Automatic annotation (TrEMBL):
Cited InterPro entries: GHMP_kinase_C_sf, Mev_decarb, Mev_diP_decarb, MVD-like_N, Mvd1_C, Ribosomal_Su5_D2-typ_SF, Ribsml_uS5_D2-typ_fold_subgr
Enzyme Commission identifier(s): 4.1.1.33
Domain spans labelled Mvd1 C-terminal: 176-309
Source organism of this protein record: Apilactobacillus apisilvae
Pfam families hit by this protein: MDD_C, MVD-like_N
Domain of life: Bacteria
Keywords recorded for this protein, A-Z: ATP-binding, Lipid biosynthesis, Lipid metabolism, Lyase, Nucleotide-binding
GO molecular-function terms, A-Z: diphosphomevalonate decarboxylase activity
SUPFAM superfamilies to which the protein is assigned, alphabetical: GHMP Kinase, C-terminal domain (SSF55060), Ribosomal protein S5 domain 2-like (SSF54211)
Similarity comment: family membership: Belongs to the diphosphomevalonate decarboxylase family.
Name of the protein in question: diphosphomevalonate decarboxylase
Domain Diphosphomevalonate decarboxylase-like N-terminal: 9-162
Gene: mvaD
Length: 322
């Protein structure tokens, strides 16, 4: 039980978004969501339970974290499941800009779920791992899988988990992340989605619409129809962000640079280069395209931003042990 275990999980970007919880403690969402796991952004986490420790010791990118309630609470769940009381040393390396809308909590909790459960002596299957990751962060539920994954909302801890939709991915698809600001965001997604559920007059319509969008994207994956997938993902992202604008108080994840990218995408499209955008709980914009258009899009965006802000990703793989 006391061997160190290392797991790698890749982040995922939702094509139809999760925004709002039915149960905040168990992280049961109000709607299902569908995502693409990316190869460029991932977290490697090593967990070792050590008898001599009197608390969990957590390092993120070699820096000791003085306090991280989310991780400690999560480790308590793992201990309870495994029937142990030992504390652990955790080393996590994030190859994702932390807290900037590039879903570091997705890869972070998926890698932690895999490493901590195995280090604690549990032998979980993918669905059980997905359920465990969900208790750390909603989007992590989907990062157990590679390629396209769907988080089925379910009604309780047992029935809310993700499944693989397609891995390896058959569609020619790339995501170009434009990293606009990697400082931590002002309103966490947890806080933001709670405000939207409670106050946006459009929340009910969102649920209905995002269910339809999810079916459209699922069919587009089956039919290998990139155009429908891209168009629907872009619409769904704007629909999610319209919840932030219509909440009380209203809040906004986009900044001026995000708008610059959105206009650039629309212009590229007008000029015959097919691409779409999606955004999460931060200013970064992800451009969805196919491999033949990557270089024209990168060229256009690099006139506006530095090359080191532009990261091209292919579909990524499922969680694995290193
Ligand atoms: C998603 N996002 O589907 C949506 C779209 C951001 C925008 O899931 O409270 O860190 O830990 O469940 O998963 C980001 O929120 O929130 C997120 P919690 P999480 O990817």
């Amino acid at each position: 039980m006391n061997h160190p275990i290392t797991a790698r999980a890749h982040t995922n970007i939702a094509l139809t978004k999760y925004w709002g919880k039915k149960n905040e403690q168990l992280i049961i969402p109000n709607n299902s969501s569908i995502s693409l796991t990316l190869d460029e952004f991932y977290t490697d986490t090593t967990v070792q339970f050590i008898d001599e420790l009197s608390n969990d010791v957590i390092y993120l990118n070699d820096k000791l974290l003085s306090d991280n309630n989310k991780i400690i609470k999560f480790m308590d769940i793992v201990r309870e499941k495994a029937g142990i009381s030992t504390f652990a040393e955790i080393h996590s390396y994030n190859h994702v800009p932390t807290s900037a809308g590039l879903a570091s909590s997705a890869s972070g909790f998926a890698a932690l779920a895999a490493a901590a459960s195995k280090a604690a002596g549990l032998d979980l299957n993918e669905i059980e791992l997905s359920r465990l990751a969900r208790l750390g962060s909603g989007s992590a539920t989907r990062s157990i899988y590679g390629g396209f994954a769907k988080w089925k909302k379910g009604n309780d801890d047992k029935t809310s988990y993700a499944v693989s939709v397609q891995d390896p991915v058959k569609m020619d698809i790339r995501m170009i992340a434009i990293v606009l600001n990697n400082s931590p965001k002002k309103i966490s997604s947890r806080e933001g989605m709670k405000i939207s559920v409670e106050t946006s007059p459009y929340y009910e319509s969102w649920i209905k619409q995002t269910n339809d969008d999810l079916k459209t994207v699922e069919n587009a994956i089956k039919d290998n129809n990139f155009t429908i997938l891209g168009k629907t993902a872009e619409l769904n992202s704007m629909r999610m962000h319209s919840l932030t604008l219509s909440s009380d108080p209203s809040y906004l994840y986009l900044n001026n640079d995000s708008l610059t990218v959105i206009h650039a995408v629309k212009n590229l499209r007008k000029n015959g280069i097919e691409c779409y955008f999606t955004m999460d709980a931060g200013p970064n914009v992800k451009i969805i395209c196919q491999s033949n258009n990557v270089s024209s899009i990168v060229k256009k965006i690099s006139n506006l931003f530095n090359n080191n802000q532009i990261k091209v990703s292919k579909p990524g793989s499922k969680v694995k042990y290193l």
